UniProtKB/TrEMBL annotation:
It comes from Nocardia arthritidis. Residues 64-160 form the Methyltransferase domain. One of its GO terms (biological process) is methylation. This is Methyltransferase domain-containing protein. GO terms for molecular function: S-adenosylmethionine-dependent methyltransferase activity. SUPFAM superfamilies: S-adenosyl-L-methionine-dependent methyltransferases. Keywords: Methyltransferase, Transferase.
Length: 226
């Protein structure tokens, strides 16, 4: 499955519509409203399926977590690549979004997507559960984004991958800020794709031990073993 091809004018109109809608919830770090979900299906310039594949590198048999799947635009692309033995977990705080993704997956006979309602700041999964975790234009909508990154480190396998995609909107997190937060959470940058206003970045844990378990004095000195 590939994202539809959209002419340049369509990109501009789509991005403009999304930006206009974003103003409605600007200043309030909150999930994108389900009532405006149609805007989440507008493909964003540069954050394409091909670029996501190149940075995330999903493989058959893996278990991957998507935080904030929205309407499932990325979910429906990633899940089939994991195969019958793999699983894509999708976590959202809004039950309506999870039900929307479930229906879309069912309509496409995709059976390896598992939805969980929960808070990204307190992931309901054990340590080292996932081969990869990704968030596409979702990190900035969550209060305490650094806490979300720490939770991602906790549930990642020691050699796991964390991918963050950001697009210029009211909740956009500039790459410099993301990199600083990632450093403090014990992550190192492995790859980056795209310009400042629409980037994808892959991070990996610096050590096998979750950074959240470090002594506070160690945390103040930054990540270990990078």
């Amino acid at each position: 499955m590939r994202y539809p091809s959209v002419p340049a004018a369509g990109w501009a109109l789509g991005a403009g519509a999304a930006a206009a809608a974003a103003v409605l919830w600007f200043g309030d770090r909150a999930p994108f409203p389900y009532g405006q979900r149609w805007m989440l299906d507008i493909p964003l310039p540069l954050l394409t399926a091909e670029r996501l594949d190149a940075v995330l590198r999903p493989r058959a048999g893996e278990r991957i977590l998507e935080i904030g799947p929205g309407t499932g635009l990325q979910s429906l692309h990633v899940a089939p690549q994991l195969g019958a033995d793999g699983q894509l977990d999708v976590l959202d705080i809004q039950p309506a979004m999870l039900e929307h993704v479930r229906r879309r997956a069912e309509a496409r006979s995709i059976t390896n997507i598992v939805g969980t309602q929960g808070d990204a700041r307190n992931l309901p999964f054990p340590e080292h559960t996932f081969d990869a975790v990704y968030l596409i234009t979702a990190l900035g909508e969550v209060p305490e984004p650094e806490r979300v990154l720490r939770e991602a480190v906790r549930v990642l396998s020691p050699a796991g991958r964390l991918v963050v995609g950001e697009f210029f909107d009211p909740h956009w997190i500039p790459f410099g800020r993301l990199h600083t937060m990632a450093d403090s959470c014990g992550l190192h940058l492995a790859a980056r794709s795209g310009p400042t206003v629409a980037y994808l970045a892959r991070f990996q844990p610096c050590t096998g031990r979750p950074v959240a378990r470090q002594h506070p004095a160690e945390l103040s000195r930054g990540p270990r073993s990078c």
